[in-house]
Amino acid sequence: MSRLLEVADIFRGHGPAWRQANAGHVSLCQLKVMSAIENCRTAALGGHVARCENENCAYTQIAYNSCRNRHCPKCQGTATREWLAEREAELLPVPYFHVVFSLPAQIADIAYQNKAVIYDILFKASAETMIAIAADPRHLGARIGVLSVLHTWGSALTHHPHVHMIVPGGGISLDRERWVACRPNFFLPVRVLSRLFRRLVLERLDAAHRAGQLQFFGKHVALTNARAFAAYLAPLRDSEWVVYSKRPFGGPEEVLRYLARYTHRVAISNRRLVALDDKGVTFKWKDYRIEGPERYKVMTLDTHEFIRRFLMHVLPQGFHRIRYYGWLTSQTRVKTIARIRELLAAPLFPIDAIKAVNAKPEQPKAPEHPCPCCGSNMRIVETFLRGQQPKHRPSPKVRIDTS
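Above: the chain's sequence. Below: its structure in token form.
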């Protein structure tokens, strides 16, 4: 069975030529991401050799270290599992809603040149919108908690900054004396959310421009002028902005499944790659403008264009793409969730208790790292550093473990 195509294969084969062709136009963060993905699960990062403890088997396997870069398609599994375990203990026995805030194309265009500033505006304006409308007595009249996740891509790897929010269907009253539930299958009016979001984003953009926090290059260089910038944003003040509230999740398990898919996602997963040949990179994508099976399509991009689109979504160093607002902030999360559980008369289960409840009946302990040949335990017999080659060799006709 042949190994599946990976983003790393594209970078290793075509990355050097792409870097040379775009010298001087590639950020240090993008170069670091390329290098990390190219070296992931290779001898360049070191690794270890494991051997079966069964002397009659002695199966030997080499495992290379992962890069752990947050943009690498292969390195998000462990981070996702650890993060989900923490979130599982925080889930409440209430409906959860999924709300999406998107930036208009005109702002997305200038966001690419001002990622840290405008993505931060997107986060804060969308959260402030949700919290303000929810606190209004005409709507919910309560303080809510919000988990926000930034995505910057569309399915075709285009630049499409938007925030996915997971929000419990209700909030705690301002006096902390009761839980205020939202209406069934309805959280907050999207038209009201859209208009406040629009105003807050435009106000913050104007303030950022006056403070000299925005930079403009190429076709947008004229926007350095205050009047030109105001004229550029003017049509957006009367247009409808996209805020989408999806139906509530079916239960806590569905919330966790959704979070597992969305929180640590990268621009494109290896599973969507179809082929790499003289025509370019072929991958699967979803056309959201179409309903039904016809929305699932295949696209081929020139290899250099594919690399450019992938790296378009590299976030600035230190920029957090998962954020918490309202009573889900780290300062108040634990106490507020405990108080809400009291109000809901729901028991508070720490994560260890949840795991114990969901655990299967105790069975004989299986090897932590079973041998694929005989099932015995695999033991590490050698560790090698970056750039070194292992002294032990893998068993014949067995591929090196790079999964």
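The first strand starts at residue 47 and ends at 52.
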